[in-house]
Amino acid sequence: MTETTKSSAPHIHGASTFADLVDWGSQPDSLEGQSSSSGRLVFKGPDNRPESGIWVCTPGRWRLSIPRDEFCHFVAGRAVYRSDEGEEIAVEAGTVVMFPAGWTGECTVIETMRNIYMLV
What does the angle CA 49 – CA 66 – CA 96 come to, to the nearest 5 degrees? Predict the structure, then answer.
């Protein structure tokens, strides 16, 4: 598996299992357990727009607020997102979600998840 983030078309081969990740620390706004995150940026544009990468998160529950439109392709693990309006979105390997900017709620990671994402 290789990383070529300095390419004219930044890319990572084998992103669903790529192991050379960076520790991104504990998940803020924890409600239960202590989720920790790691990942690897694929690309970050001017003013961080767009941003794409790999995100891995261990079990726990926390509050979240999505600041920009975020496309997520979950490739491993299981989690449940609950919007402040009460909607539940269960995710597992193969799930794709488009969270609109301003989405608020909670995330409960049941089994360590891996997400290939893009913030626009």
Answer: 85
**What predicted TM-score, i.e. pTM, was given to this entire model?**
0.91
Residue pair 64/107 in contact by the 8 Å Cβ criterion: yes
Phi, psi (deg, nearest 5) at residue 47: 55, 30
Distance of CA 25 to the CA centre of its chain: 13
Taking CA 24 as the corner, what is the angle to CA 21 and CA 28, rounded to the nearest 5 degrees?
A: 150
* Residue-wise pLDDT tens digits, 69-107: 999 999 999 999 999 999 999 999 999 999 999 999 999
Q: E strands of the chain, at which residues?
A: 3-4, 11-12, 22-26, 30-32, 36-44, 51-57, 60-65, 70-83, 88-92, 96-99, 104-119
pLDDT digits (tens, 9 = 90+) for 47-78: 889 999 999 999 999 999 999 999 999 999 99
What is the C-alpha to C-alpha distance for residues 48 and 63, in angstroms, rounded to an integer? 22
Q: What are the tokens at 77?
A: 């693990």
